Description:
Layout: H1 7-22, H2 28-73
Helix pairs in contact: 1-2
Amino acid sequence: MENVPNYKDAIEEIESIVGEIENETVDVDVLTEKVKRAAFLIKSCKNKLRKTDDEIKKALKELEKEGDNADIEE
């Protein structure tokens, strides 16, 4: 699946798909595709969250190192 929206748009699309399924407005002929798309979007969101978490941890670690160095310089 090629269309990877940003996080906010992906969440909105997931919510839309879930709503369609819950309201039983999804035609059975497209249900499989909707579920596959939702699974793809969920995986994409999870990957973005993991990447963001890693980047935040890295940034905080750098700040911590800078703080340690500032203590030494004083």
